[in-house]
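Propose amino acids for all 322 sites.
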């Protein structure tokens, strides 16, 4: 319980710092009044608007108001769309979540078994091929990989659509493109582009941890006891590789939310990435600040989940040990 409370307090402190950065961006990158009114507006009208928005208040008062509004879901009004930023994020977020979940699931399903296999059979031909594939996935830029996949699977083979989100359907109380075949066909290529980098990182980490654990004394003792290979590899070895692997998975999945921008642009995926690029092009400060806070929240929550999984996996953490 003490461990959980300490982590929650740290998460709150981190979010306050992220909110401070977003507030500073909102305050000092451009003038909100000039963005809201035209050039013909008089100085008196501008000052009246500034007063009504509370921009003449002390900085600490404005920051406290900014945090309070953010806690209530009020992230301001977009300069370029003249719409509530929270509503715009709520509209774009499901598309990004779909892409992140699908790519993360593909990466985990492929990378963890492949990492175990390459750790056990590190000199085999298939293991060397998987390691080469992981290097390619980490090395090739996402925009280049996306263009190559569009060329091959959309232009040459005509198997998959090259852009868009596809049809959306409702199931289990949610609406998603992943519930339709057309939506899945649209999501497959961008998810594969994001998956390859995550897969390469996770595969190599699982392999490295397996190689290290298999050299330990308790694994030798397990072999000496005559335990079957499946039990030694999956129960004794894999369990003790999970802590660093879970750390990497948490960071990689969080990074997908923050850095899927290029992939969404290449495939014209209507998610958060395209919204951020529009905000940058139009100097839409409320959108930029809101995106910064959102990404900070994603990383903070993922770290909390990872810490909770640590306590479940490692009894030393759960009981306050080293």
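Proposal:
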């Amino acid at each position: 319980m003490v461990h959980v409370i300490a982590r929650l307090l740290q998460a709150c402190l981190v979010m306050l710092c992220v909110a401070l950065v977003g507030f500073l961006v909102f305050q000092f990158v451009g003038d909100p009044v000039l963005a809201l009114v035209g050039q013909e507006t008089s100085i008196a009208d501008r000052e009246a608007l500034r007063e009504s928005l509370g921009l003449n208040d002390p900085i600490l008062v404005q920051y406290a108001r900014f945090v309070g509004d953010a806690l209530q879901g009020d992230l301001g009004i977009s300069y370029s769309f003249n719409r509530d930023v929270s509503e715009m994020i709520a509209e774009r977020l499901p598309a990004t979540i779909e892409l992140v979940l699908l790519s993360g699931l593909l990466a985990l399903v492929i990378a963890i078994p492949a990492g175990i296999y390459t750790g056990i059979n590190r000199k085999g031909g298939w293991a060397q091929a998987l390691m080469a594939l992981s290097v390619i996935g980490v090395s090739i830029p996402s925009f280049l990989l996306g263009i190559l996949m569009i060329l091959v699977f959309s232009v040459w083979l005509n198997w998959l659509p090259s852009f868009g989100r596809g049809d959306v359907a409702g199931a289990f109380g949610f609406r998603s493109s992943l519930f339709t075949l057309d939506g899945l066909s649209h999501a497959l290529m961008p998810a594969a582009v994001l998956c390859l980098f995550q897969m390469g990182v996770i595969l190599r980490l699982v392999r490295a941890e397996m190689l290290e654990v298999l050299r330990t004394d308790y694994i030798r003792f397990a072999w000496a006891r005559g335990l079957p290979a499946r039990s030694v590899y999956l129960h004794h070895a894999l369990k003790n590789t999970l802590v660093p692997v879970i750390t990497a998975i948490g960071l990689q999945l969080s990074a997908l939310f923050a850095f899927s921008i290029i992939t969404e642009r290449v495939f014209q995926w209507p998610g958060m990435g395209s919204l951020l690029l529009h905000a940058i092009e139009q100097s839409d400060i409320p959108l930029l600040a809101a995106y910064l806070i959102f990404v900070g929240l994603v990383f903070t929550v993922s770290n909390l989940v990872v810490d909770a999984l640590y306590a479940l996996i490692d009894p030393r953490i759960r009981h306050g040990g080293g």
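The longest helix spans residues 85-120. Residues 152 and 158 are 8 Å apart (CA to CA).
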